[in-house]
Structure formats: structure tokens, C-alpha cells
């Protein structure tokens, strides 16, 4: 078994990272501005931070565990949603983009310096575009392409820029998972 090779302190650290990641992702879901059909939340910033701080593998695993718990019905998503209906509803496409974004954020260089901070910010913008594109495509199947763009993509662009800047700035100062290479 994969965990049998880890020391008890390494297992505890892993458990703490996963627990804190799931708690942070859940809290970011509840930081919400109601909009129809998709609320504005802090989720994408925390998804990016999870991947960047924990690395690609652990960050992606944390996001997948959080989504798995939500799929099982725990009220971990925006507006306290959980269960299959949350994944089949208006926000399903965005949720699909979250583990992809966490993985790619974990692969971005975490070296210090303004050149790297600007690069990281640019990559985070692209990751927001990926999330919004997947969300918009999914939403367009429910409400039409024009309405999905007007209500599920365009209103989130400024927030994506702000959350990308916030995540890039925080990654520059936050400690990362020891041994994390992405």
C-alpha cells in the first residue's frame, strides 16, 4: 500500500494538508455573491492556491477529494450544495475545470522574483479562462451559448483577473508543501 512507506509524521502531515485543503475549498464556496445561474465565489482562487502550495499531485488529489465528498452529498459547494444534482446543474462545467486548474497551477514554477510572479499571474489567468470555458460550454447546453456567455463567463472575467493576482501574490509569500516539485 502506498501509505505503508510513509512515517507516522509524514502521514499526519499529509492528513493535515488534505483536511486543511478541503476546509479551505469549502470555506471558499461559502464566500459567495448570489448571481443567476452561477454565483461568484472564491473557489477558483483557492483551487489555484491548493495546487500551487501543495504541488500538482497533492493539490489535485485534495480538489478531487473535496469534489468526491460533495458528490456524496456533503454540502461543500456554493450555496451549501452537494450531491449529483450539483454536478449536473449549472455549475458542473466549472467543477470539472477545478482539478485541471489545480494540477496545472501546481506545475507552474514557484521560484521567487518579479519575472516569475508575472509569469505565474499570466498562467493563473489562463487557468481561469480554462475554468470559465468549461463552465460556459456546460452552461450553454442548459441555457444556450449567448446566455451562457452573458451570464456564466463575462461577469466573471474581472473576478478572474483579481483572483489570479491574489493567488499569484499569496503563492509568492506562502510556504509550500515540503518536497513539492509540482
From TrEMBL:
<keyword id="KW-0813">Transport</keyword>
<feature type="transmembrane region" description="Helical">
    <location>
        <begin position="12"/>
        <end position="33"/>
    </location>
</feature>
<keyword id="KW-1003">Cell membrane</keyword>
<keyword id="KW-1133">Transmembrane helix</keyword>
<dbReference type="InterPro" id="IPR003784">
    <property type="entry name" value="BioY"/>
</dbReference>
<protein>
    <recommendedName>
        <fullName>Biotin transporter</fullName>
    </recommendedName>
</protein>
<feature type="transmembrane region" description="Helical">
    <location>
        <begin position="86"/>
        <end position="109"/>
    </location>
</feature>
<dbReference type="Pfam" id="PF02632">
    <property type="entry name" value="BioY"/>
</dbReference>
<keyword id="KW-0472">Membrane</keyword>
<comment type="similarity">
    <text>Belongs to the BioY family.</text>
</comment>
<feature type="transmembrane region" description="Helical">
    <location>
        <begin position="45"/>
        <end position="74"/>
    </location>
</feature>
<keyword id="KW-0812">Transmembrane</keyword>
<feature type="transmembrane region" description="Helical">
    <location>
        <begin position="121"/>
        <end position="140"/>
    </location>
</feature>
<feature type="transmembrane region" description="Helical">
    <location>
        <begin position="152"/>
        <end position="174"/>
    </location>
</feature>
Amino acid at each position: 500500500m502506498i501509505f505503508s512507506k510513509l512515517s507516522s509524521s509524514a502521514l499526519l502531515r499529509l492528513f493535515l494538508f488534505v483536511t486543511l485543503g478541503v476546509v479551505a475549498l469549502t470555506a471558499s464556496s461559502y464566500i459567495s455573491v448570489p448571481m443567476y445561474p452561477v454565483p461568484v465565489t472564491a473557489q477558483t482562487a483557492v483551487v489555484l492556491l491548493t495546487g500551487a502550495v501543495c504541488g500538482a499531485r497533492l493539490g489535485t488529489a485534495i480538489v478531487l477529494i473535496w469534489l468526491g465528498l460533495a458528490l456524496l452529498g456533503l454540502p461543500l459547494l456554493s450555496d451549501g450544495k452537494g450531491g449529483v444534482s450539483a454536478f449536473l446543474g449549472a455549475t458542473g462545467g466549472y467543477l470539472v475545470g477545478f482539478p485541471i486548474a489545480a494540477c496545472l497551477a501546481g506545475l507552474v514554477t514557484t521560484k521567487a522574483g518579479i519575472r516569475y510572479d508575472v509569469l505565474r499571474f499570466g498562467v493563473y489567468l489562463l487557468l481561469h479562462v480554462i475554468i470559465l470555458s468549461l463552465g460556459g460550454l456546460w452552461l450553454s447546453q442548459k441555457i444556450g451559448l449567448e446566455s451562457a456567455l452573458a451570464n456564466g463567463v463575462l461577469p466573471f472575467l474581472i473576478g478572474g483577473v483579481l483572483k489570479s493576482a491574489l493567488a499569484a501574490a499569496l503563492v509568492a509569500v506562502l510556504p509550500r508543501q515540503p518536497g513539492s516539485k509540482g
